[in-house]
Amino acid sequence: MKILGIGSRINHEEFGLGVVTNVSTKDYWVTFIENGLETIAIESKFEIIECVENEVDTVSFYDIETTLKNLLKQWSDISEDVHIGDKWKGGKLIMEPKDPKLASKEIPIDTFFHKIVMVRDRLRVMEQKINSSKLDDLDKVDLQQYITRIYGSLTTFNILFKIKEQQFEGSKSE
Prior knowledge:
The chain is an alpha+beta fold. The protein has helices spanning 61-75, 109-131, 137-154; strands spanning 9-12, 16-23, 27-32, 36-41, 46-50, 92-95, 105-108.
């Protein structure tokens, strides 16, 4: 399939006559005489009135940035920005032993949260290494089940996360 260049003129059955003003990887941005600016899928059906053939870079910077972020997230141990819930910011975690003669331990909750997030991120990297390993499928599934159970054990700490989608998720009971 040939990609139209900017300046190409088309006749779309729904929007009428228009000129291609921008091209992305999936869409043409077309300014139509009667309908203004519309985006239409590259695979859309329309009549080509005049095809301008010029070099069209069909990958936007946004597409490249999104792809690169996804690759880094998937294949590296670089973590995403994960924020602690507002009510916990600046708080402290106090651990007191049963024996009152023993000293308690206090740490900033932000430090504790950061360590929890590091555990989560390293579990994700381990999952990816397992999935891309040369282990047989049965061994992969077995190891995945252990990781899922670990996530389930860590769900206690979900109250610390500001964004629900970043929380731990274990196996769901049916």
